Amino acid sequence: MTPRQVVDAHGVRLRPFRAGDVADVVAGCADPVTQRFLPNLPTPYTETDARWWIESGAPAAWTGGGAAYAVADPATDRLLGGIGLNNPVPDRGQAEIGYWVVPAARGRGVAGAATRALSEHAFATGTVRLELLTEPENGPSQRVALAAGFRYEGVRRAASPSRDGGRQDLLTWIRLADDPPGPTARMLPDLPGGVLTDQVVALRRLAPDDAELMYRLHSRPEVVANQAPPVPPERAAVERRCRLAESGWLTGEIARLLITDAASGEPVGSCGLSYTDVASAEASLGYALLPEWRGRGYATRAVRLLAGWAFGPVGIARLIAGTVPENTASHRVLERVGFQREALQRARLPGLAGTRLDDLTFALLPAELR
Fold it and tell me: Which letter, b or e, does each residue of 55-77 get, where b requires 16 or more Cβ atoms within 10 Å of its Cβ?
């Protein structure tokens, strides 16, 4: 590729940076969200930094075999963001794609359009494999990757320096030249309208603000007793779990949901769905309720809603739920939804001090959902 090329595609224009872009580059790169997820940017980001990028940084990217494009509005040529290719490996036909968008242009599909445009241009000019790396907490960027046809490949541990001097993981998303066009199909699609409800109970995706509630719920002795191993969670682990709830959903690892009262919006508990065998379309679900909401049918309704979503939009063919044999209240909930006792797996789960716990497994098929 050459820096003189201009790419017009998908409603955006990729062109070289210009001196007149300084103010917009500052607006984009000084923004707190951009600063959070691009830790290599100077802080504070000033006009001097923007001019250096336009006059020296971007040209150096081209000289090094990569690319550095301004993303502009085709109608006005106003800068909307930046996108480029870096860390090229010519022998492998590989490069890494990265982008940022000015705050005023977010939510308009600019990043996705620019990523599709540059990906297609890169493939047309000889690139075979593109990598897109995101921080685990950067859900919007992960959605861009999926919308642009990238597939989740795994975790690159401690791959990036953080502003506090430590290291952080990066999620790796890959698109190959011969991958089909269009968005990548997700293993765990979004909830329709963002919520599942039967007008009594409502389920929505767990969010960072739910951390205190989740810590209170999952620290209760009766909830801990039904976990394996039965060890109370650390607050930091619960907070991280809530911050990564969207990422777990987008990567297909697990769908974590908050159960609420549909009328009042008050939190009732939590539930989750995760694949146990992708090839056979089998998944497992679990749930926990706050004590003041137990015995009122909320658990049964939540499990029924979650199972219906799993058998419908997710495409699961078989659901299982593991319980400790003594948890008879949970057994009744599962049986009311249609689950059947299937197996007692002896000493399957870790207990305390080297002990092992039995696992009583229930299973549900689509036709059995009540």
Answer: eeebeebbeeebbbbbbbeeeee
The maximal CA–CA distance of the chain, rounded, in angstroms, is 71
* 30 vs 43: CA distance, rounded Å: 8
Q: What is the CATH number of domain 192-368?
A: 3.40.630.30
Q: Which two tokens stand for residue 178?
A: 């011969």
CATH 1.10.238.10 applies to domain 7-176:
no
Instruction: Please report the pLDDT score of residue 115 as a whole number.
Output: 97
Check residue 54 and report its DSSP letter.
Answer: I
pLDDT tens across 250-284, in order?
999 999 999 999 999 999 999 999 999 999 999 99
pLDDT at position 230? 86
